[in-house]
Amino acid sequence: MAAWTGIVGNGYTPEAFDAYCRTLRWAAWKPGFVVLHNTGAPSLAQRPLGFTRQHMAGFEAFYRDTRGWSAGPHLFVDDRLIWVFTPLTRPGVHSPSWNRVALGCEMLGDYDRESFTEGRGGQVRANAVAALATLAAVAGIEPGGMRLHREDPLTTHACPGRAVEKAAMVRSVRDLVAARHAAVAARPVGA
Ligand SMILES: [Zn+2]
């Protein structure tokens, strides 16, 4: 069985996630892009309050003990928080073709059945976009390199659901990176 990488297990608001990522150093391993996933099961309806630390511990037991993997995805994004699972500076396990080169971002929901634009699904989308904008700014991960899990030729898994459109996600991440830049540039000197 592969040695288990360990987890971070903390949930961050988008602002706290940005501050956290600025403390990281991608020295030994540098991801080139992000692969988007949705959890499918659990769906949003099955997690009315989003994830908890107990859910992270449950995922750890599942990937480590049931699957026997060395790690899992890097992020679990819900409608409230961005949860860091596998450390962002270490390779994860989430998409067979791309584990060595990409970060894996799971989004809570079943986006074949649940809305990805309105209500809680829209908030999951906003939090994922915020996380990807931070990774673009802090780790230089170009939004245009984003892939969907279902684009991996080694997977037959229809993930994420059809409501997750790559071009729209890339555009949203780029827009947020630009808006954050403009906000910093507009700040008065010394503020
Ligand atoms: Zn997936």
From TrEMBL:
Annotated protein name in UniProt: N-acetylmuramoyl-L-alanine amidase
Domain N-acetylmuramoyl-L-alanine amidase, first and last residues per copy: 31-162
InterPro entries membership: Amidase/PGRP_sf, Amidase_domain
Transmembrane residue ranges: none
Gene Ontology BP, a term: peptidoglycan catabolic process
SUPFAM superfamilies: N-acetylmuramoyl-L-alanine amidase-like (SSF55846)
UniProt keyword Hydrolase, yes or no: yes
Database matches in Pfam families: Amidase_2
A molecular-function term among this protein's GO annotations: N-acetylmuramoyl-L-alanine amidase activity
Lineage: Bacteria, Pseudomonadati, Pseudomonadota, Alphaproteobacteria, Acetobacterales
EC number from the UniProt entry: 3.5.1.28
Record's keyword terms, sorted: Hydrolase
